[in-house]
Write a structure and sequence with these properties.
alpha/beta, Aspartate Aminotransferase, domain 2, 2 domains, 38% helix
């Protein structure tokens, strides 16, 4: 019963088939192949406007390179203090931007706003930086995780308000969409409505967690913003010589809504788990379950018993009462019977 991460599971069959198909014959290297060249049209159709799309291997590279194109070395990026770019990318955003600073803002860790920032908080943080003052970093971008690190999803209205706050002050809005499909499946909105129509300028389009072997992309909703991205990608070691294999995964992932079907299944399993765990007296769920992650507060001995029975999951944090807040992640390939068995074990019925 592996609930450690959606990264634990493999590749969607359709993606594997696309890789096998891409393995035929010879094509131009470094993105000159038909699959990579066709991504621009595919993603422009997906998002309902002309976009620039650049495949990379990892989400860290997508985030770091995207932010570097709009943030100079003396610039600053406003983000959540617990965001992936702040805590889990080993300084890559600062490195790729040659020294730009991340400014992390605190926010609620429980309840409906868990993991989120508000437009007011972001606006205040930007305004606190003295503009035109040579001794201070200058704000250039806001980065949000969608969904957040706690699995909650910014509504279209929340996104729009944050975008307005950023744009009014001359900043660009970037979305870290490592699990963007899960957020979109929850919102039940179009890809356009959840991005550029809400004011998003750049999206790190995640696919690896959703069922590709290793494929991410940076999507610019104004192609002019991409600027020198291609040179930064090459310098950063993320220009694949056999780019067709990355592009084939992305093409198959979005074709016929596969990405949203896969995310919808993962989200549904998380809701199923949450419903079951909510009936266990010793467990509370302090964060609303909106995507494929369940945060369950439980006694330490229960966590140990679940692990002893074969369950794998992360302790998000230790609680002051000696218990743990566990993070349980589901994926497109998580067996439903694993969810049922985990709930039964938690309830003492297995």
């Amino acid at each position: 019963m592996d609930f450690g991460s959606d990264n634990a599971y493999g590749v969607l069959p359709q993606v594997m088939d696309a890789l096998a198909h891409a393995n035929r014959g010879a094509v131009r290297a470094y993105g000159g192949d038909p699959l990579t060249q066709g991504l621009t049209q595919s993603f422009s159709t997906l998002f309902g406007r002309a976009v620039a799309v650049h495949p990379v291997f990892t989400g860290t590279a997508a985030n770091a390179l995207a932010l570097a194109t709009v943030t100079p070395p003396h610039g600053a990026v406003i983000c959540h203090a617990r965001s992936h770019i702040m805590e889990s990318e080993c300084g890559a955003p600062e490195f790729y931007a040659h020294g730009a600073k991340l400014i992390g803002l605190e926010g609620p860790e429980e309840g409906p706003l868990a993991g989120k920032l508000t437009a007011a908080a972001i606006g205040a943080a930007i305004d606190a930086l003295p503009r035109g003052f040579v001794h201070s970093v200058q704000p250039f971008a806001v980065s949000l995780s969608q969904p957040t690190e706690l699995g909650t999803v910014y509504s279209l209205q929340e996104l729009s308000q944050i975008a307005q706050a950023a744009h009014a002050r001359g900043l660009k809005l970037h979305l870290d969409g490592a699990r963007f499909a899960n957020a979109l499946a929850h919102l039940q909105a179009s890809a356009a409505a959840a991005t550029w129509q809400a004011g998003v300028d750049i999206l790190s389009f995640g696919a690896s967690k959703g069922g590709t072997m290793g494929a991410e992309a940076v999507v610019y909703f104004d192609p002019a913003l991409a600027g020198d991205f291609e040179y930064r990608r090459k310098k950063g070691g993320h220009l694949a010589s056999k780019m067709r294999f990355v592009s084939a995964q992305l093409e198959a992932y979005v074709e016929d809504g596969l990405w949203l079907q896969a995310a919808g299944r993962a989200n549904g399993l998380a809701l199923l788990m949450a419903e079951g765990l909510s009936r266990v007296n010793s467990i509370t769920l302090p964060v609303p379950v909106q995507t494929n992650m369940v945060f369950a507060r439980m006694p330490a001995d229960l966590a140990a018993r679940l692990r002893g029975a074969g369950a794998y999951f992360y302790d998000w944090r230790k609680e002051t009462d000696g218990g743990v807040l566990a993070r349980l992640a589901t994926s497109f390939a998580t067996p439903e019977e694993d969810v049922a068995r985990f709930v039964a074990l938690a309830a003492g019925k297995a």
